[in-house]
Amino acid sequence: MEFFCVLRRQLYLCLRRDSSTLGFCKRSACFYKAFAAKYDIHRCSRNSRLCQGASIQHATQSRHSCSAFWRTQSVRAESTESSISAAQYEAITAETLDSLAERLEEVLDDVTDMPEADLALSDGVLTVHFGEKIGTYVINKQTPNRQIWLSSPMSGPKRYDFINNRWIYKRDNVSLHELLGKELSKFLKKDIDFGKCAYAV
């Protein structure tokens, strides 16, 4: 079992060395399991010198591949998420909310069977009331997190991050403008598009 222990220790040290990137080492067990499956370690014979040598070689190489993997993931995250300053965030959210308010006002003007429908934009909070039949949308900026938050009567609360020049919900990668268009089209039974709004595409 010596080769097995060496391999396990090499992988552990690899993950431990990169713990600053991961934030923790709890993934070591999962990574080890996947690595073992990839190289068929569980099929190796204890007395096979060839297997021992190959396994130890894979373990040594894994230190470099492991570090490269997490560096790649870090670079990908940095490239997809825009790091914007507080001033940029304020300007972008203001333009986003203003353009949404203008488009939603046009939508409300075309609605003739909802006399109680109303819209208000104040202090970074856009509230759109479609009456009791549909409900109320609330779209507001969340400065500490550099996000825009949405409360929808159909899909509930969502938090949007500014990624690749659009406001994206990370759990499904759907943009704020796409979701609003889809839901309002369903509610109002006609095509509602937000493609011309700021940061929609």
From TrEMBL:
Keywords: Heme biosynthesis, Ion transport, Iron, Iron storage, Iron transport, Mitochondrion, Oxidoreductase, Transit peptide, Transport. Pfam families: Frataxin_Cyay. Coiled coil: none annotated. One of its GO terms (cellular component) is mitochondrion. InterPro entries: Frataxin, Frataxin/CyaY, Frataxin/CyaY_sf, Frataxin_CS. It is found in: Mitochondrion. It catalyses: 4 Fe(2+) + O2 + 4 H(+) = 4 Fe(3+) + 2 H2O. One of its GO terms (biological process) is iron-sulfur cluster assembly. Its EC number is 1.16.3.1. One of its GO terms (molecular function) is ferric iron binding. It comes from the Eukaryota. Its main location: mitochondrion. PANTHER family: FRATAXIN, FRATAXIN, MITOCHONDRIAL. Belongs to the frataxin family. This is ferroxidase. The lineage of its organism: Eukaryota, Metazoa, Ecdysozoa, Arthropoda, Chelicerata.
